[in-house]
Amino acid sequence: MDLLNKTILITGASDGIGEVLAVEFSKLGSNIILLGRDSLKLDEVYDRLDCSFDSQKHLILQADLALLNNESSHEILRAISEEYKSLDGIVHNAAILGTMTTLADYELSKWDEVLNINLRAPFLLTKILKPILEESTLPRIIFTSSGVANIGRAFWGAYSVSKFGLKGLAEIYANELE
Predict the structure, then answer these.
(1) Which of 25, 33, 117, 123 could form a disulfide with 65 if both were Cys (CB 3.0 to 4.6 A apart)?
(2) DSSP of 45-82, one letter per residue?
(3) Backbone phi, then psi, for 172, in 5-degree steps?
């Protein structure tokens, strides 16, 4: 797939897999939208993005996906729409592990945070960004996951549940958007 001039949103772009994807996609000529909650780390990744193609334009969007709601999702849509005519891809990469403990001992606030970042945010962002994705000739949505999405394991709690849910969400979107 040719990524030259493609605009790609990457959540969790401030480090790890998201950072690597952002840097590598930029080398292929993509416009990168970095989304993360740590502005200093996002600035560092932005500075590492390739800008050797004349048409490249990168963007930083600072957002805490644990707090994402309808209004803040629409703000993300507006920010992207102001800079780009379409969105060619979303990489839902942001995730947190949460607490490694038994379900009986899992704190509700931590459970909610994990589910909000790992499952609710990808659902909401995909829903809100769908119109601008449809402006692309061949849009793509990628959901990163984990082996604990297939078989539940003791002590993996909310993380495993969120990845089971994310797998289901990806399968439903694939079927609905076919």
Answers:
(1) 117
(2) HHHHS---STT---EEEE--GGG--HHHHHHHHHHHHH
(3) -65, -45
Structure tokens at 32: 């990168």
Local structure of 143: helix, strand or coil: strand
> Running along the chain, 178 residues long, what does each successive block of 10 average in pLDDT?
92 97 97 98 96 91 98 98 97 97 97 98 98 95 93 94 97 93
Six-digit token string for 85: 């005519």
pTM: 0.95
- Catalytic, 159? Answer yes
Report how far residue 128's alpha carbon sits from residue 122's, in angstroms, rounded to the nearest whole number.
Answer: 10
Structure tokens at 2: 């040719």
Out of 46, 106, 159, 173, the active site residue is: 159
